[in-house]
Request: fold
Amino acid sequence: MSNTPEEKMKHLDEMTLLLYIERQLDRARALEISAHTQECDSCRTLLRAMERESRLLTRAMLEEDEPLPSRLVQFQERARKSMQWIWGVAFGLAATGVYAFYTEYIELWLKQLETAGFGGTNLLGLLIFQGTMWKGWQSMITLLEVLAMVTLGGLAAMFFRRRIRRGSALALVFAGLCTVLAMPQGASATEIRHEERLTIAKDEVIHGDLYAAGGRIRVEGTVEGDLVVAGGDIEISGHVLGDVLSSSGNLRVTGQVDGSVRCYAGNLLLKGKIGRNVMVAGGDINIDRDTKIGGSVTSFAGHETIDGHVGRDVLALGGQVTITGDIQGSAKIRSGELIIDSSARVGGPIDFTSDNAPQVSSGAKLASPVHYEKPKHREDYRNVHYYIWQVIWTAAYVLFGLVLFALMPKFSADAVKAAVHYGASAGLGVLVGFGLPIAACIACVTVVGLFVGLATLSLWYGSLYFGAVIIGAVVGQWLMGRTSELWPLIGRMAVGVVIVRLFTIIPHVGWVFKYGAAFWGIGAIALVVYRRFQPVIAPSVPSAPYSPPLPPNTTVGGAVPA
Amino acid sequence: MGTSRPGRMNAPGITEPTEAIARARAGDAEAWGELYRDYAPAIFRFCRRALPTREDAEDATMEIFMKLKAKLVQYDATRSFSAWLYKVAANHCWDMLRRRKIRQDKETDDLENVPLEHPDPGQLERLIEQRTSAEVRKALDKLGGRARMALVMRYYSDMSYDEIADALGVRRAFVGVVLLRARHELRQALEGNAALAAGGTS
Reply:
């Protein structure tokens, strides 16, 4: 080829030829290559060789050299069949669980509340939707319910469907929250005050509801509506015509409240007149001698002293309860200790459940003797029922795990893998296991955060069980070897859960295993959640398909042109 | 013209399973089974070529179909289903390989060094002539993860350069380089001939 021009002598490089074969060159360049290969033997031979190489590759790729493994043939059938009964079982289990929960807890509670003077028909309604909190908010209850659904839906969406972008789910939740935040001003003639040291002076009158927050709050004047207050140290010495809803470190009510008092307080001192009921959770509760409560008292407290006058019933749960005052109705008390002083007067029956017998002074004026009952401890190892329940619980755990693994196979498998990072998952477990409920409770204190808090709490509660299931799978893998397949993993989970449950019924130390497993599992779950929400550098999933020339089919590469 | 790329441009494509997809989206287990039966063999073979072991391929196939179940709503019915399916499969396999750090040193090479050699055509021709497709498949096992993925995406599932670039996270302009390097690696594996693999000089 010595007579050809010099540039034609220059051979084409392999890269160019490949792009030519693959039709990646523009038309002009392709024509140039075509012309060159017509004339240059070496380039033509190379081009042909590369084309043959392409064909060889395609043929090698497309040849059906091995049949579909039986595992894959069965996979879909198995998954489909098993899914059908899983749903049946899950539904049955859920129904049983709801029924058991209702009869074991809710109904019992409702009865207790009713005896304590709450005619509430619905526990949730009683706690959340009645009274002070929603005065002027009634119109918003439906909105809040919708918000609750949106929040839960958003959380569910984030967990179940990664394809809903995190941003949009969060945006939805925050949009909901902002709407609620923006609403109350328009919803009622409410006065909102926020100051570090807030005092409603003696002659001051608030014509409506007062929402107040601050480090130190003194209400010496009159609030014609409800008082909703949050702060470090609160004293109500004035007159509140409506209800009081409070969350604080210290709360002293020395004035008059015509409605009910519902509060959470580290220390509560009641020294005034309460027209209706008192519902309180706190460390120390003192109902002073001068107190007059028109309705009933429901309390959860470390120490509680009832020295004043209670118009109706008392329901008290706590460490130590001392009665020195006057209770017109009945008393239902479940606490470590009960002391009834000689000055006490109780008009109705007294039911007391505790490990310790009550200390009743002979001078006390009681309508009937204290009905004392020792609580039945769950760990009654001699009782057959105990073991039956253990079996039922274990089965419930396994089924719960089954449903979760079937619903979220990838997430579950990842969590099991994460649990093997013992240090990280255990550490995170302690952090999240304790931190999350605390954060949720703090969120619950604020009106707006209530639903976020409740949703978080229920999620946390659910993940305690899920955590135990994850650890079951880890234990199962220790015994039966690791697997990345779903159904063998579920099998290992079932075996592991049974073993973990066996450990948890060991007397005295069983709880260590129980909570250890739950928290360790929570850590693993948290680890996976954290990893999922980390920014991904290279998106692993296509968002929209790009149209390719033509997809191959599953036949042998017979379409290779000559 | 002899330069037309080998491939399935003229091959009849699978008719789009539009109806089955619609039913599967609505939660019809039968339709889902249909899709699985029709496409699992192709996806398994894709994974088998792309991943080092048979077990990996089986696991990946199942994982891809489980993923698919959740993703089906994202599928744009106006596009080719199998192309979309291969894209999901490619991303899954590449993720798997990356996670295991199967990538070899070669793949950290600077892709901007475009190989511009003109190897001995006769030598390449002889090599290609003597090899069977079974040998090629065997040789694939010796390739680095990226080289392997690139070849499978291009010559098995007929993905475009754009799709390959997208899946491997490289610029489109370098897909050719990745493919050519992969071919070199393959030649080396087939022959153990360093000269051919590196590309001889003209």
Observations:
- The longest helix of chain A spans residues 70-115.
- The CA atoms of residues 179 and 531 of chain A lie 31 Å apart.
- Chain A touches chain B through 78 residues (CB under 8 Å).
- The mean pLDDT of chain A is 75.
